[in-house]
């Protein structure tokens, strides 16, 4: 109860901080005001107290049934961990993780729901590995025996003996690090792969070299004509991005909408035409992929019932079908038709395709035009890829916030576990010093133990992360490896090792400032 009361104020501050992060990243609209009433705090406190009481009762059942004479021996042995219910539960989680990975790779398409099966796969697999951690730790310590024994001095041999005779204690430190590495690695590389695909997809679809961006409500209808009149400009096309629903045969289907100018669409966007012509995108018309047309049961000349972003019902005529691109699943409408149904009612971007000659002169003339239109910036199209996909950035911010919370919780668990275990071993360290070991040798032994814990947790966490990363990358990029820097993985693993060493060596060093005789007597 005391811990709950101490956590109320920091929890309130953490909630405000998280709300600020979500608001600044666009996950939460700025119009929403943060308010933390007493009810959520009371429910959180009650759930915490009940969970602590239930866990204490469950963990204390065996201790309460143990004879007083046998209790000291049981507390030092700590080797019994296996049970049939534990094995069945572990197999359930492991099977669930593998099953979700297989479903991701073989059933799920490249769409917004892909992460719904890929993300939980590593979480389930991590939990299954944590349940079997004592047995897996014993096997991996045996595999690492030869290289550890090759270390100079007695530190390696002592560390091997300690980890081999106290596998449950060692596994208790391994389990939270497996969760940290597995979930953080899987989520961050899933996000980096999505970002890479989004950038390259935008780059491959946009043929224009330059983009005029408006930050003050959009461009007036005549600006695109002015851009087309600039010498050296081969084509100019307005671009509007929105969302809507198609009234399909199986109910409303949410779709991304893209508004363009018919005059410049063929030279500004890569739309491999299957039927019809995008040049007909004028008035109440629409173009879509051949795959989407098959799903909706329409062809060129048919009307497609749909609702635009503001809820307006329309029935545009299909004037073109283009090849399917799963990473650019837009329906394309005239910019003049779509823009009035968006927030500002105007296009915020103009794509500019220039002629091969006099590229520098065209850029200078475009920059001069941008200077005359308030709030307008000129940029190359490739650099606007990330900015263009606002939904992607919102999801990225949400994922990073979730990872930060998971890593923070796992880090606290790791530190608490290792500090508690290390403090309980003070008598052991005192006996070692009384039998001739120096402080440096004890700390060296603990460093090797921490390294063993880190290596085992890294291997298991990497395997768990692979159940998310590999199938997600296969669907997104047809590669087993994710997109993103290896530095992300090294930072996660390195940070985990620093946590282990810090939570082990610091309390040990402080504890050994007390004379060894007094430490043993106190125990």
Secondary structure layout:
Elements: H1 2-25, H2 38-65, H3 71-77, H4 84-106, H5 114-131, H6 133-143, H7 145-149, H8 155-165, H9 167-205, E1 210-214, H10 223-228, E2 233-248, E3 251-260, H11 265-268, E4 273-276, E5 285-289, H12 290-296, E6 306-307, E7 313-314, E8 317-322, E9 330-334, H13 335-338, E10 349-354, H14 359-372, E11 376-380, H15 385-388, H16 390-424, H17 426-434, H18 439-477, H19 486-511, H20 516-522
Parallel strand pairs: 3-9, 5-8
Antiparallel strand pairs: 1-10, 1-11, 2-3, 2-6, 2-10, 4-8, 6-7
Structural overview:
61% of the residues lie in helices and 13% in strands. With 523 residues, it is an alpha+beta fold. Strands 1, 2, 3, 6, 7, 9, 10 and 11 form an eight-stranded mixed β-sheet that branches. Strands 4-8-5 form a three-stranded mixed β-sheet. It has 20 helices and eleven strands. The protein starts with a helix and ends with a helix. The longest helix has 39 residues, at 167-205. Helix 1 runs antiparallel to helix 16, helix 5 packs antiparallel against helix 18 and helix 17 (426-434) packs across helix 20 (516-522).
